Amino acid sequence: MKLPDLKKLPAGVRILIFAAALYLFLLSITLLGDGFKGLGEPFVRTLLSFTASPVAGLFIGILATTLVQSSSCTTSLVVGLVASGTLGIEHAIPIIMGANIGTTVTNTLVSFAHVTRRQEFTRAFPAAVVHDIFNILSVSVLLPLEVAFHPLARISGVLARLFTGVGGFTFASPLKLATEPVAGALAGLVRGQPVLMLVLAIVLLFVALRFIVDMMRSLVSRRLELVVDKYLFGNAAKAFLVGLFFTALVQSSSVTLSIAVPMAGAGLLTLRQVFPYSLGANIGTTVTAILAALVTGSTGALHIAFAHLAFNFAGSLIWYPLKMVPIGLAGLLGGFCARRRVWALVYMIVLFFAIPLIVVILIRRF
Hints:
- This protein has 366 residues and is mostly helical.
- The chain has helices at residues 11-48, 54-68, 71-84, 89-102, 105-111, 118-149, 151-163, 174-189, 194-219, 222-232, 236-250, 253-265, 271-284, 287-296, 299-319, 324-339, 342-365.
- The protein has one domain.
């Protein structure tokens, strides 16, 4: 979809179109999650009960979160299983690790809106997958350590006991307040058909992103670039804090990271700026879970919430000093997939669906 003569429109009109497109984008993310939940949540509840080993838990976490498009949903189900005694904490932590990988499928999918424009895709796809790669690298280091020495279980257990009974608070996400009424109305129109909801979500996602990128191009000025670069992403600390606070506010790392993808595609953000932003989002996504766990007063809920925080924090401590590894791998993968774009689709299907599904089938059979 090419939008002609955008610069001939008044700036106010272009800003309104951009705001409407951004709302459609956020709505499509909400619909995408609702559609996947409708398809996958009953299966996911059964799936989580098959955890037999840490490796099995990891891949079950990836598949479960990919199916419901929400690490928060997976975490909530895990908390319930831990609280009921169905699942031990040693098996729950690998599921949380897998959920961290599975939740990144949304921003990878968002990058495909740029696939018809090679130059944009060369920038957008690495910005999407750098979070995947960071989580995979974190798991490759921390899962063996957890199996051998249980550091995350020990640390989160101490924190859970310290904070049990402290109390907390919850707040409504402004994203949910803005999108759920419309999402609910659209869900009524498709009469609970999750496949139709997914189709609608993907159409809205691609249309919205096309408008967002084109409007960004028409609105971009040297002044806007300076604001983004100097005040929001001027250094790693600023980018990290923007990712952390924005994710804590909207209560969705998928939304936070997906918004960065079209900005990278439009050339407003570089891969080096997106990486610390994604680390902040990773920490921010644990904030609401911890607050909610404090409200429940459940030690099991706190144990899982703090284990999630400990994993994300430890991963950041390990890989930020070595940031050229995930950034370099994302750049290489992005360059390869930009030249052979079908491999981007293969990457997404294999990482998020094929490998986890094969592992789960083998677990059930043997």
